[in-house]
Write a structure and sequence with these properties.
Layout lengths: L5 E2 L2 E2 L4 H11 L4 H12 L3 E7 L2 E6 L7 E6 L5 H13 L1 H8 L8 H5 L14 E4 L9 H16 L2 H6 L4 H22 L42 H5 L13 H29 L2
Antiparallel strand pairs: 1-2, 3-4, 4-5, 5-6
Helix pairs in contact: 1-6, 2-6, 3-8
Length: 281
């Protein structure tokens, strides 16, 4: 997954769903206002961005001493719309797997098509926003600066877009799990055998080939995913019995932080190796 960074050189390389968001923002016809917004975003005038429930709350430092407060939101899908989306997501395990891996499926809008809705806004006017500044234009430069920086969060967690449409990551995964469980229960009661996720292959007679697998895997179900938050070896180990040193009260925490950083680096290297191996013919 590619991170989005905003520095003096502007936005770095971005995944496609962030590119789509940025194209939406850049469609704004008042280019001078966008230029000022870009400067605000680049120079740190956006003091905070919080994704709270279905809305984005932000504080932007303008020309006044007190920062301006603003909020952004999208139209939320109702429960009936989400019923269609969830049923569509159940039809393709690949979509859920990719989202869990931090990747937005490039055909995700097909899951929303059944409801007649979209995940991504079609035009800038669909992004609702309010700012406490005196500028009557909407979006103002403060809102536009937040637009630019929201792409960074989208690149880290594609579930944020789902959250703005009315379903958080935990809600979405919980509802998908409940629907799968219900479907399996209905299949058992009707005597219908659950659909196999992959071909069944008998174990080879040669013990040295016990871990080999020669059958083709369904590409829709094979997704290389990074470790989920809280599932690293250090987290699983729990509290380590480190000796306390009163002269250096922060030493233990720094040591643990270094271990986590090292684990993250090794995990990223392993992901790169796996992705490279998977790309070989």
């Amino acid at each position: 997954m590619t991170n989005t960074t905003l520095g003096k050189e502007g936005l770095g390389q971005q995944p496609w769903w962030v590119v789509e968001w940025m194209e939406l923002i850049n469609s704004y016809r008042y280019k001078k206002r966008l230029e000022r917004a870009w400067i605000y975003a680049r120079e740190g005038n956006v003091l905070s961005i919080r994704f709270e429930g279905r809305r984005v709350q932000a504080r932007v430092q303008g020309t006044e001493p007190e920062p301006y407060k603003l909020k952004l939101w999208l139209d939320v899908l109702n429960d009936e719309d989400w019923d269609f989306v969830l049923e569509a997501l159940l039809q393709k395990a690949r979509w859920t797997c990719q989202l869990l891996a931090g990747v937005m499926p490039d055909d995700i809008e097909r899951a929303f098509a059944a409801s007649g809705k979209r995940l991504f806004p079609f035009k800038l006017q669909e992004v609702r926003s309010e700012c406490s500044c005196p500028d009557k234009a909407n979006p103002c430069k403060h809102i536009s600066a937040v637009y630019y920086l929201m792409g960074d969060r989208f690149s880290e967690d594609p579930f944020v877009l789902f959250q703005l449409r009315g379903r958080s990551r935990s809600q979405l995964l919980k509802e998908l799990a409940e629907r799968r469980k219900q479907r399996l229960q209905e299949q058992r009661e009707s005597g219908e055998a659950p659909a196999a996720l992959s071909p069944t292959v008998a174990p080879p007679p040669d013990p040295t080939r016990w871990w080999s697998y020669s059958a083709a895997l369904d590409p829709d179900l094979v997704v290389i995913t990074p470790a989920m938050e809280g599932s690293t070896g250090l987290d699983e180990a729990g509290d380590l019995p480190l000796a306390a040193e009163p002269r250096f009260p922060e030493a233990n925490q720094r040591f643990l932080d270094q271990l986590r950083q090292h684990g993250t680096m090794v995990g990223q290297m392993a992901m790169m190796e796996a992705m490279a191996a998977g790309a070989e013919p």
